[in-house]
Amino acid sequence: MPILEKLPYLRVLRGWEAFIGKQMVCSKKGFPQLKSLLFRGLPNLQEWTMETGAMLSLGRLEITDCNKLETVPDGLKFVSTLQELEIRWMRRAFKHSLEGGGEDFYEVQQVPSITFLN
Predict the structure, then answer these.
(1) Cβ neighbours for 33, distance < 8 A, ≥ 6 positions apart
(2) Is residue 118 in a domain?
(3) Biggest CA-to-CA distance, the chain
(4) CB atoms within 10 A of CB 71
(5) pLDDT tens, 44-86?
(6) Which domain holds residue 39?
(7) Helix (H) or strand (E) holding 86
(8) What is the rounded CA–CA span in Å between residue 34 and residue 2?
(9) How far apart, in whole angstroms, are the C-alpha atoms of residue 112 and residue 89?
(10) Cα angle 23, 67, 64; round to 5
(11) What per-residue confidence (pLDDT) applies to 19?
(12) Between vectors from CA 82 to CA 44 and to CA 10, what angle results, nearest 5°?
């Protein structure tokens, strides 16, 4: 991630089992032009940190089959450009925390389209 987030013209990032660590950090000013991000099949990912000012152009985020991930990153609430969030094949607790009234709903309440598929 430290290398990818510095690519100034990266607009789409899709990865199947593309990250093997337990913790991922997206730094401030990282991924400046990223519009679409898909995380799929990251079996070890437990914690994702997004610093304020990261991914400020993100319009679509899909998180699929990352069953150890506890929640979306705190910094996601500052990404005002995010229009679509799709959650697929995730733990039930992850899904419930993001639904209206869930403990992490405040992180995604600004997103117009949130889809849960299992």
Answers:
(1) 8, 9, 10, 11, 57
(2) no
(3) 37
(4) 17
(5) 999 999 999 999 999 999 999 999 999 999 999 999 999 999 9
(6) 4-113
(7) strand 84-88
(8) 14
(9) 21
(10) 95
(11) 78
(12) 70
Residue 94 lies in a domain: yes
| Closest C-alpha to 78, from 104, 107, 101 | 107
How confident is the model over 99-111, as pLDDT tens digits?
A: 999 999 999 999 9
Distances (CA, A) of 61 to 18, 91: 16, 17
Q: How many structural domains is the chain composed of?
A: 1
pTM: 0.93
Lowest mean pLDDT, pick from 19-23, 26-30, 97-101, 110-114: 19-23
Does residue 47 sit within a domain? yes
